[in-house]
Design a protein that fits this description.
Blueprint lengths: L6 H9 L7 H21 L5 H36 L7 H27 L2 H10 L5 H26 L5 H15 L2 H16 L1
Helix pairs in contact: 2-3, 2-4, 2-6, 3-4, 4-6, 4-7, 5-6, 5-8, 6-7, 6-8
Length: 200
Amino acid sequence: MIRDQTIEAYLAELASSAATPGGGAAAGLSGAQAAALMAMVCNLTKNNESAIGAICTQAEAAQDRFAALIDEDMAGFDAVMKVYKSPAETDNDKRDEALQRALVQAAEAPLCMMETASTLIAPLAKLVTIGNRNLITDVGVAGILIGATIQTARLNVLINLKSIKDAAVKRAMIERVDRVIALNPQVDAIIQQTQESIRS
């Protein structure tokens, strides 16, 4: 599990020739770091206790969710590779069914990363105004990481969707992707606000 690894061990695996972890794990870790930064800002903010407490709870839950999704992402990719490596004499229909199931699993984890990241946008926007002003740069970094999580996870969704044959499944996933991508201007606005606050 990703949460049981040291940073050094994770980076060594990421840099190795192993199939996982890869870009999906990197996306999830970006999201987890964004959530952790939000929790840090909350823990160092002494006013607006009710609102800050709610944001902290949400950020901590998202951090745990991202860690779980990293493991799910790696399991999904491993499932796809297992099918590809199955013996050539395997029944073609059964092999194709197994591959399609694995591809959907592999697309679902990064899609959930996108959606989890999107749930942090509104509370992060609140932190811009009610968070500890001395930590405005950390709020901005969290915004950048949320945007990066959405974009990198999106790539991992799309590469799997490319090989999914079920049109209804593909369409439903694309709609979920588009709903998250539509929130990008809000992320950009948060980053812009933090930059303006730093300059003022």
